[in-house]
Design brief:
This protein is of the alpha+beta class. It contains 39 helices and 17 strands. Strand 11 and strand 12 form a beta hairpin. The longest helix is centred in the middle third of the chain and has 31 residues. It starts with 6 loop residues before the first helix and ends with a helix.
């Protein structure tokens, strides 16, 4: 029989599956129990698979068919693949073996033609058992094996013999290792922008592991969710904990089922578009301070967090029961209320936390003092879950409890480990109720990669790394500053409180500052330190905004920032908090350019504070210093001093204010060495840049900025900074700081050569309109409809109008902006480009054709209208 002859049977099977799937989708939409639907789909697929088997095999064929995985459990999601095992005889004659192989091939092909995604393996009984003895994943699959067709006896023998291949302790250890590796591979995906419902921490795979362990360690009849009852029957979970486990499993299963139905294929990731649709489908509504999608995701994150704690409770309890070499327990000498049981902290008296709630804090302090411990034992975990509700206003007002919390923050080791543990077990959000209010709170954008609570803990963790000498190599300057602070807990507290008021309505910085100061005073920090924490929370965006959106070559910007900071301690603490905050918001958006901007602002502000704000550096002094430093570098490189001075005479004084000595020296060397009439294009790396610098010198005609930025964007480069200086010979000197689109530096020599030649070729065609960019914005970006917003920051800065633009980020954005400017005769002198997730927040320093600020209200209004029209998001 050829494959073509199977078309009719395949069509019949496919039609039957489609009809069944339509019915199941309708039942799902009506809200029917999802576990019943998964079982119903498994039953329907059983019928199709068995019919296909009968079409391809003869009754006397010595082969057995078994279902594995979720299909074996009888929990088959709408678009999940089906895992099948075909058992064949150990020894068979060549003709019979060939005949069986041909039939297996036809069977699998028929299933694919019927529309099933099939994962199959063909093994002998002994071969399968031998492989499973060394592969715990195969052994796990065999725990869920279910005979479907063929030789029933052979399948039953395999299932019976596979049950004892792995001892409980070894199986449990393998599952814990697998879980840790998977979570690491997911990169804490439960707290990423688009979490994985199946494989992320606290996801369905974790719950499957609980079922497997209950089956293997406790002897439950079936693995999977059917084994959950055994956890309560054997005292591993209480009845209320079992209910939470089942509710969480049903919620995640419903999400996964909905994802499959939405995508029409297997999909485990809660993508942004799916988040929006499922929020509506699951009945969430927009609130005053939280969108429906954010409420939905808050429910998701809180669910996986609670399930993660239950998973840990099950693991430690079953580890204890499965252990064959337990060494008993030994009370701690420094706190005999607790005992060390195989590296786990266990309560000697299970009711201790109920009678003495403050002992909950002491448990975390004990963990901090003994860094070799593995965690809390089951009695301690259950005690925390039962007693954490005792952390109320009276608990928080107790001076002993306040002192214990501050002792943890001031600990020599384990500060962030224990803060994370407190958060994971629901204790931190009760000690600081405002933190509890942001647990699981998300912001639906591409900038904030984590819920607010998780972001906060990342910020504190980043600060803590600055304080530990073993991480000095990561951020040497930050480590020096942090390790010199007399009271680092001040910065930790600022990190804890900087976003704590998000979602309360109003300015979260102001509200958080009030919360922080009250907390600090209540915990007996000095009024000075309490005010410092409050100031840091109130101003935690000041350094970032100034560095990324203001012209740091303007002495007035530096002087104003230094005045706002006031002294070096405030400056250093703000610098540390800013870097920790930005890196903890979304690590993918941190790059060398941001690092350089923050460093430059910190250094210049420190110099201004040491010099004294009443004696600022004047322009003449700064120009002289820049020229002298650049001249020394050029002379050391062998450049002719007369040629250098002759070149510099073509520039105005402003040029030397806007560029660093290294840039001035680089520009001079490139211009002096350039011959011919063609535009000059050079690519270099300067020590004071966080990215590559692209230099373009071409006639100062309209369209120069447009063509240069179009060429750079077409090359897949991100423009971070642009400065344009005009020479007195009619040429314009344009300097662009760029990174690769993914944030990587432009290091490869061949890539630099490509950039140089492509930009030079573009600049030869200044009279022509640059071609439109063919690249589309990434999928995630296209989901956000960011309306363009244009503002003028008055008064003008150094005779230039400051235009602040917010718009949806996309390829070609700068080119479009430049074309609008050219259309209205607006000249760009500098630009600072900032990407915040899906948004571009750019600042342009512009004048009219005569070099004057844009004072005409009509021109301003037309500029705003054209930019909004050109940059409006497409539906």
């Amino acid at each position: 029989m050829t494959l073509s002859t199977l078309n009719s049977p395949a069509r019949l099977l496919r039609d039957a599956l489609r009809e069944s799937d339509r019915g199941l989708a309708e039942r799902f939409t009506l809200g029917e129990n999802v576990e019943d639907l998964l079982l119903a789909r498994a039953d329907r697929v059983d019928d199709v698979v068995q019919r296909a088997w009968r079409m391809c095999f003869e009754p006397g064929d010595r082969a057995a068919l078994l279902a594995l995985g979720g299909y074996g459990r009888g929990a088959l999601f709408p678009r999940s693949d089906i895992d099948l095992l075909v058992l064949v005889p150990e020894r068979d004659g060549a003709p019979a073996a060939a005949r069986l192989e041909e039939r297996i091939g036809r069977f699998v092909a028929l299933l694919w033609d019927a529309g099933l995604q099939v994962g199959h393996s063909v093994r002998t009984l002994d071969g399968c058992l031998t492989a499973a003895a060394s592969d715990h994943q195969l052994a796990t699959a065999l725990l869920e094996a279910r005979p479907l067709a063929g030789d029933e006896l052979c399948g039953a023998v395999l299932i019976a013999r596979a049950a004892d291949l792995w001892g409980p302790a070894a199986f449990l250890a393998a599952k814990r290792d697998e879980l840790e590796v998977r979570h690491l591979r997911q990169h804490d995906a439960a707290y990423r922008l688009e979490p994985d419902v199946k494989d992320g921490p606290g996801g369905l795979r974790d719950l499957n592991a609980i079922g497997w362990l209950a089956h293997r360690v406790l002897g439950a009849d079936q693995p999977g969710a059917d084994a959950f009852d055994a956890l309560a029957e054997h005292g591993v979970l209480t009845a209320s904990e079992l209910e939470l486990l089942r509710e969480g499993h049903a919620f995640l299963a419903r999400i996964r089922c909905a994802l499959h139905l939405l995508a029409g294929r297997r999909e485990e990731r809660l993508s942004f578009d799916a988040q929006l649709r499922l929020a509506r489908q699951f009945g969430f509504e927009d609130l005053a301070n939280e969108r429906a999608v954010e409420s939905f995701m808050r429910r998701f994150f809180r669910t996986v967090g609670e399930l993660g704690m239950l998973r840990e409770l099950v693991f430690v309890e079953l580890e204890r029961r499965a252990a064959t070499d337990a060494s008993g327990s030994e009370p701690f000498a420094d706190d005999p209320r607790f005992a060390n049981r195989d590296g786990l902290v266990e309560l000697c008296d299970p009711a201790r936390f109920e009678r003495e709630p403050g002992a909950m804090l002491d448990a975390f302090l004990l963990m901090q003092r003994h860094p070799g411990l593995r965690g809390f034992g089951p009695t301690t975990l259950r005690g925390l879950r039962a007693a954490r509700g005792r952390i109320d206003a009276g608990f928080r007002a107790d001076p002993r409890h306040r002192a214990a919390f501050m002792a943890l923050l001031r600990g020599e080791a384990g500060v962030t480990h224990e803060l994370r543990r407190m958060a994971r077990y629901g204790v931190l959000g009760r000690i600081i109720p405002a933190f509890g209010a942001v647990e699981g709170r998300t912001q639906f954008d591409l900038f904030h990669a984590y819920p607010v609570d998780e972001h906060t803990l990342f910020v504190v963790s980043n600060l803590r790394r600055f304080a530990l000498s073993r991480y000095d190599h990561e951020f040497p300057a930050c480590s020096r500053l942090m390790q010199a602070l007399p009271r680092p807990e001040v910065v930790y507290l600022a990190g804890l409180f900087h976003d704590i008021a998000k979602g309360q309505g109003g300015d979260h910085s102001e509200l958080g500052a009030d919360e922080a100061e009250a907390f600090c005073l209540a915990h007996e920090l000095s009024p000075y330190d309490a005010h410092l924490v409050s100031w840091l929370v109130r101003n935690h965006l000041l350094l970032s905004v100034t560095a990324q959106k203001r012209d740091l070559s303007d002495p007035g910007v530096i002087r104003g920032f230094a005045a706002a900071v006031g002294d070096e301690l405030h400056l250093d603490c703000l610098y540390l908090l800013t870097i920790a905050d930005v890196r903890g918001t979304n690590p993918d958006l941190w790059n060398s350019w941001k690092a350089r901007l923050f460093h430059d602002l910190h250094a210049q502000a420190r110099a201004a504070l040491r010099r004294g704000l009443e004696a600022p550096i004047d322009a003449i002094e700064r120009i002289a210093a820049t020229r002298a430093s650049a001249r020394a570098e050029l002379e050391a490189a062998g450049q002719d001093g007369h040629a250098v001075e002759a070149l510099w005479a073509r520039f105005g004084a402003e040029y030397f204010l806007r560029h660093t000595p290294a840039e001035v020296a680089w520009h001079a060397a490139a211009l002096i060495g350039h011959r011919g009439e063609a535009p000059l294009v050079a690519v270099g790396t300067l020590p004071d840049h966080g990215g590559a610098a692209v230099l373009v010198c071409a006639p100062a005609a309209a369209g120069g900025f447009v063509r240069a930025t179009a060429a750079l964007e077409r090359l897949g480069l991100s423009v971070l900074d642009a400065r344009i200086a005009e020479l007195d010979d009619g040429r314009a000197l344009q300097t662009y700081v760029v990174l690769e689109d993914g944030g990587q530096p432009l290091d490869d020599p061949e890539r630099r050569a490509e950039v140089r030649s492509r930009v030079a070729r573009e600049m030869m065609q200044l009279a022509a309109r640059p071609a439109a960019l063919a690249r589309r914005a990434p999928r995630q970006v296209r989901l956000f409809m960011t309306r363009p917003d244009v503002r003028f920051a008055d008064p003008p800065v150094d005779g230039r109008t400051v235009v602040e633009l917010t718009a949806g980020d996309r390829p070609g954005l700068l080119c479009d902006v430049g074309q609008v400017f050219d259309q209205l005769g607006v000249r760009v002198h500098a630009a600072r480009i900032t990407t915040v997730g899906e948004r571009a927040e750019d600042v342009f320093y512009v004048t009219d054709r005569a070099g004057l600020p844009l004072a005409d209200a009509g021109v301003r209004a037309e500029l705003v209208a054209l930019l909004r029209e050109r940059l409006a998001p497409s539906a």
